[in-house]
Amino acid sequence: RNQSGKGVTLLDEMLDAGLKPSHVTYNTLIEGFCKEGNLKGALILRARMEKEGKHANVVTYNLLLKGHCKKGNLEDANRLLNDMLEKGLVPNRVTYDVIKDDMMQKGFIPDIDGH
């Protein structure tokens, strides 16, 4: 089993023991899935994170943005960027680096809806 899969098993054990994983825990696992190229797993984990009451933060979005760009899913990355802005999250330097280095250098100009 891959490393991210092992991480999810550990997450399940934490939850079964009554422990509440932090944003850092979820983001670390999401990053692992993205690095493995398993964006579907990362998105499932984000949904699970939200279900557990941990709302995605700017770090979560940055990881997923980078993951989409790595896969060439620039339209999906653009939608995710707009979702982040609609939720009132403020882009940070990492966000701008992803836009510049992973979107614009590939010739994609993000369409920011009303932001």
Automatic annotation (TrEMBL):
Keyword annotations of the record: Repeat
Placement of PPR repeats on the sequence: 22-56, 57-91
InterPro entries in the record: PPR-containing_protein (IPR050667), PPR_rpt (IPR002885), TPR-like_helical_dom_sf (IPR011990)
Family membership: Belongs to the PPR family. P subfamily.
Name the record gives this protein: Pentacotripeptide-repeat region of PRORP domain-containing protein
Organism encoding this protein: Nymphaea colorata (pocket water lily)
